[in-house]
Amino acid sequence: MITPMDIENKEFKKGFRGYNEDEVDEFLDTVKEDFENLYKENIDLKEKLKLYQEQVSRYKSIEETLNATLITAQTAAEDTCTAANKKARIIVEEAELKSKQIIEDCNERIIELRKEYDSLVKEFKIFRNRFKSLIEDEIRNIDEIFYNVDENCKESFVQTDMNTIASINSYVDDEVASALE
Known about the structure:
The chain is mostly helical. It is 90% helix and 2% strand. It is built from three helices and two strands; from the N terminus they run αββαα. The protein is rod-shaped and about 225 Å long. 0% of the residues are buried. The model has no long low-confidence stretch (mean pLDDT 83).
């Protein structure tokens, strides 16, 4: 293949009418063939370059699409994380509020139950004292009613015994008298 230096350094011999026509034609044919080859190669390279540029353009488009998709996905992921964290905070805050309310309600209920218990204990003590007092009054009443029972029972029993002994004596006397007759 001819180089630019070959073209520059090429010297044509002068003939009668100037340069040797055959040499010049031969050189021009060589230059023409090389130039055609270079021209065709240049066209092929331009077509390849165009194809490569189109491919690069497609790849850049794909890259831009992927970057945009990646950015969108990253933004969506960040938004999702932010929303999830916010929702989690809200759930935790609500749970804390509910637990505080439940504890407060339980404490109030405990206070109510303690008051109710104290009231029931007080009522029980009052009942117990009244019942005890009632029983003591009834025992006193029974004691008053049956105060003379022991003495009356003795007199009644002694009198009944004397009457029985007198009846037995009379019977025995009657029996002895009948036996003697």
